[in-house]
Structures are given as C-alpha cells and as structure tokens.
Amino acid sequence: MNDIGADFRALYRRGDPVTIVNVWDKGSARMMQSLGAQALATTSAGHAFSMGRVDGGTLSRDEALSHAQDIVAAVSVPVSGDFENGFGEAPETVAETIRLAQEAGLAGCSIEDTALPDFTSYGFDLAVERIRAAASGARGLPRDFVVVARADGVMLGNYDCDEAIRRIRAYEAAGADCVYVPAPPDSAALQRIVNAVSIPVNVLASGPFAKVTRAEFAAMGAGRITIGGALARVGYGAAITAARDILQGDFAGLQRAVDEDDIKDLLAP
Question: Which keywords label this protein (predicted)?
C-alpha cells in the first residue's frame, strides 16, 4: 500500500523547498493539483471564511477533520492539515488530533503554540510538551505522518525571534519533523530561523515575503513554502472588488472572469 505520508516527507528538502498550496474547498484543491501542485494544505482562514466566520479558533475539530477528508478525497497528492492549536491545550488532546488527522487521510499537519481564541502564546514548557506529544503520537501511527511545529508568537507580537528560535530548537529536540515561524520581521531574521535548526523550515510566502522568489527561499535553505490564507484572500478580494463595482452599476469587472471551459479542464479528474 502506498504511504502518502512517506511521499509527503520525501518532498521536504532543505535548500530545495516544495511549494505547498493552501486550498479552502474541493474545487480549489482539484484546480491546484491540475495546475501542478505537488502537495496541498488546508487553510484555517480560508475554511473559516467559507463558513462565514473569521479565522482563529472558530472551527471545531470535527469540522476541520470533515473538511480535510473532503479535500483528501478530491485529489491524489499529499494534503497537510492547518489544525491551528490542535483543538485543545492538553498535550493528550494534541496527540489525539494527530491520530484523527491521519485517519482522515492527511499526510501531516501543523500545530501552533497559540491559545485560542485569546491569541496568547502557551508557555515554553507546555508548548514543547504539546509538540512532544504530537510527535510521539505520529510515530505510533500505521503510516508516516509529518508534524510541523509552529512558533506563532512573533507574528502575534507575543515574543521575539530569540524566543521563537529557542522554541523551534526545542521542538526539533522533541521530535518535530519541520518547524515554522510565520511572519518574521525581515529576511535576516528568517535566515537566522532557518540556520537555527537542522530539520526543514517552512516559510510563509505572504505579506512582504510574497516578493521573495522560490529561488531566494531556496538559497536561504528553506525546506517548504506555504501561502497560508493568502490565495483565498486573493480570490475573495477579486470578488469583493467586482461586487463593489456591480452594486454601483458597473459590471465591467466581470469581463475579467476566467473562461468556464478553463475551469472545467482544471476540475477534470
């Protein structure tokens, strides 16, 4: 039997990063695969928007798992879950989330160090124990499963890059397969983060880092590139811009619509 988790792990190469496209429904997943994406990931933001909610602790674990199952069923490439904080504070809860994620067909998932919906950061010791539980749970699964450990406090303004580096080094020691510090202040800080560990580092190509090319991320030594909810926001942004004009009586923006035949081609099995 093919091990989708092992296939996913094989894509993680420091200095030769795989670009993982974050998708928000079955249609976007099928389209991104048709366009050549080697792997996909869910996006908690995109999923939440599609449910009429804001991002950050508004989705239940059952909803995230059902959503992930739908996306996995729509494609043949590996899919990783954006599972926020693992849907609970206790390390045991995080380990259970890992088991359920694998049962849903995911090849891996990311776990944040953020208490939701307050957006505070877990203390260092608890954050590390949560990743240790996730990694231990993953190693006990019947197939390979990639655990991505996130240090989100820099993005949230809860701690600095020195603390993020302390955390990702501890995450590596606790068994994480990949680490991720979203939204460092600049490229120099990102380089420090990549250099701080020996395992692959995920970089977020969003905000100011959307100007950085894959080749430049590769030169830094990145092992994986994701886009978070950015592509979903691009899509929603185009719809919002067009709708504002439509509601003022100007329909010209609809001329930018993609041809339906192009969509049919991308959705074809």
Answer: Lyase
